[in-house]
């Protein structure tokens, strides 16, 4: 038996594992509504883990990041997304380009890749959360996969947002978070990006009567 | 190994035999409450078994000896599984008899024999049920093995008793990998026990049935044994889940004082487990049969990730 880690860092590890679990749940989810709820849950776990890291290390600026995560990713963005899909009236099943078992297998391969990639980096890092870097990287790659394998616009945007979550988690686990200015900038970017994409949804649907992104591939200049 | 251990072993088997129908009755009752129906009495499964034991056996003309033998094989397998899984103590005389892999083998033997019996008479339903059961089985088994491997990576042993001892009685450590393994195990046990997202245990009339289709030809004491074995299997899986993921309260010693602690704790845990099962069954809808591979694929994937997480997060850097 190896000596046990301190309890708080065990809790961080547990939250990291839950984050990975949620990433997989999002990857295999068929319904848009559940997808948004899972995204909100992922934000909540992220917020909780940031608070625990802040408490463990005494980095006060992480409390502000956690608060920002709570406000933006748990409350505001899911609310906007809920409103959007109500107005777009898209509660149908999410269509994937690749079937779900195959997606899961690719997901496992990505997790193995991410863990292997992160291992040397974690050995250099001196933070107590270094072991979670592999999980953060895996979550980023899984969000990428989700964006690639979904053909509709809304799940792709949720994939993008969840990737931002994972990047934030990676920053927290590798270097105890980015400077406050950068974090504020990213938060604003995500929010504005979300609003612009929301407008895009309506434009895309008006043009093609569908939110399927594949229609965009056929655009030709006349 | 003293005499007390043997008494405890016998007691554990007796509790399994008596407790299994009670657990089934409890799950049915919780489910009825949750679905706003009037609940059947808690002792209904006992009455069912008693009624069936009194009735005569009606056999098909072309039923072979295998068909008559299978209920006993099935019953013996599930009782053996209940005897091996540490529920009252981790120091039981039968515990070294089989490790986690052998336990999966015992469950597989029960499954194969029931499937053969389902095909034996040659009715369309029996064959259909048997084929579906094998489909579920071959997907569920690797996931179950992976769950056991994750637990054994933690305790460095495949013996169930050692696994329970490591998690319950050493220094308290949070194992994130066990969270994944726990979800995977829940999915697998839902599928293995013919529970709602995969199969509906309460129907005899649907084309989607799996377990009920195989036992359609059984009657009298054979059916009683098969139903009792199904209850025992649910009990065994519940105890297995409790032993792997919530082992607190299973004592190490074999003294009689320990039973005073172990038994009430077991009852409370099984009661809560039954409620959770009823809740899952109420909240989810029955899947199409061809969704089952996806469901069990998810279980397998979670179990693999549990192993990976174990290697990354919990191994020394």
Name its key features.
heterodimer; A: 222 residues; mainly alpha; 7 helices; 0% strand; globular; B: 317 residues; 71% helix
Structure at a glance:
Chain A is mostly helical and 222 residues long. Chain A contains seven helices and no strands. In chain B, 71% of the residues lie in helices and 0% in strands.
Reconstruct the topology from this structure:
The complex is a heterodimer of chains A (222) and B (317).
Chain A (H helix, E strand, L loop, with lengths): L6 H21 L4 H26 L2 H29 L11 H25 L8 H17 L3 H23 L4 H29 L14
Helix pairs in contact in A: 1-2, 1-5, 2-3, 2-6, 3-7, 4-5, 5-6, 6-7
Chain B lengths: L2 H32 L9 H11 L10 H20 L15 H21 L3 H32 L4 H10 L6 H17 L18 H4 L5 H26 L10 H28 L8 H23 L3
Helix pairs in contact in B: 1-3, 1-9, 1-10, 2-9, 3-4, 3-9, 4-5, 5-6, 5-7, 5-11, 7-9, 7-11, 9-10
Taking pLDDT < 50 over at least 5 consecutive residues as the criterion, the unreliable ranges of chain B are none
* Secondary structure: number of strands of chain B: 0
Largest interface by Cβ-Cβ < 8 Å: A-B, 34 and 28 residues
Overall shape of chain B: globular
The sequence of SSEs of chain A as H and E is HHHHHHH
The rounded distance between the terminal residues' Cα atoms of chain B is: 40 Å
């Amino acid at each position: 038996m190896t000596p046990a880690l301190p309890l708080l860092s065990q809790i961080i590890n547990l939250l990291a594992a839950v984050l990975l679990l949620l990433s997989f749940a999002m990857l295999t989810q068929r319904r848009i509504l559940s997808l948004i709820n899972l995204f909100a849950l992922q934000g909540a776990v992220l917020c909780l883990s940031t608070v625990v890291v802040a408490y463990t290390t005494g980095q006060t600026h992480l409390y502000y990041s956690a608060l920002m995560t709570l406000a933006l990713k748990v409350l505001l963005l899911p609310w906007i997304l809920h409103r959007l899909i109500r107005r777009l009236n898209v509660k149908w099943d999410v269509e994937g380009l690749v079937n779900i078992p195959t997606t899961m297998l690719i997901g496992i391969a990505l997790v193995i890749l991410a863990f292997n990639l992160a291992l040397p980096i974690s050995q250099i890092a001196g933070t107590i959360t270094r072991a979670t870097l592999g999980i953060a990287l895996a979550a980023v790659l899984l969000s990428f996969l989700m964006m690639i394998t979904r053909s509709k616009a809304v799940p792709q945007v949720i994939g993008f947002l969840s990737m931002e979550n994972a990047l934030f988690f990676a920053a927290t686990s590798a270097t105890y978070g980015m400077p406050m200015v950068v974090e504020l900038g990213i938060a604003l970017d995500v929010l504005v990006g979300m609003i612009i994409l929301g407008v895009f949804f309506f434009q895309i649907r008006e043009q093609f009567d569908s939110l399927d992104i594949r229609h965009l591939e056929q655009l030709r200049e006349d | 190994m003293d005499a007390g251990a043997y008494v405890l072993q016998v007691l554990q088997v007796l509790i399994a035999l008596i407790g299994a129908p009670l657990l089934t009755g409890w799950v049915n009752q919780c489910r009825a409450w949750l679905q706003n129906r009037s609940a059947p009495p808690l002792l209904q499964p006992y009455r069912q078994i008693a009624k069936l034991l009194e009735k005569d056996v009606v056999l098909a003309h072309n039923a072979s000896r295998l068909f008559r033998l299978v209920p006993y094989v099935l019953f013996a397998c599930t009782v053996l599984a209940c005897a091996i899984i540490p529920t009252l103590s981790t120091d039981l005389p039968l515990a070294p008899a089989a490790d986690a892999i052998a336990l999966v083998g015992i469950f597989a033997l029960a499954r194969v024999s029931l499937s053969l019996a389902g095909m034996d008479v040659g009715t369309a339903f029996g064959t259909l049920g048997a084929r579906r059961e094998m489909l579920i089985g071959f997907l569920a088994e690797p996931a179950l093995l992976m769950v056991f491997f994750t637990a054994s990576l933690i305790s460095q042993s495949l013996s169930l008793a050692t696994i329970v001892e490591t998690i319950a009685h050493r220094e308290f450590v949070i194992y994130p990998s066990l969270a994944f393994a726990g979800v995977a195990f829940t999915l697998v046990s839902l599928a293995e026990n013919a529970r709602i997202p995969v199969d509906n245990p309460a129907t005899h009339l649907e084309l989607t049935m799996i377990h009920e289709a195989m036992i359609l030809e059984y009657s009298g004491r054979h059916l009683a044994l098969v139903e009792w074995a199904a209850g025992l299997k649910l009990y065994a899986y519940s105890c297995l889940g409790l032993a792997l993921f919530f082992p607190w309260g299973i004592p190490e010693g074999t003294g009689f004082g320990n039973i005073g602690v172990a038994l009430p704790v077991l009852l409370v845990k099984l009661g809560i487990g039954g409620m959770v099962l009823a809740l899952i069954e109420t909240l989810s809808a029955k899947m199409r049969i061809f969704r089952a591979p996806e469901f069990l694929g998810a279980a397998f994937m979670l179990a693999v990730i549990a192993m990976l997480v174990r290697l990354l997060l919990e191994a020394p850097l």
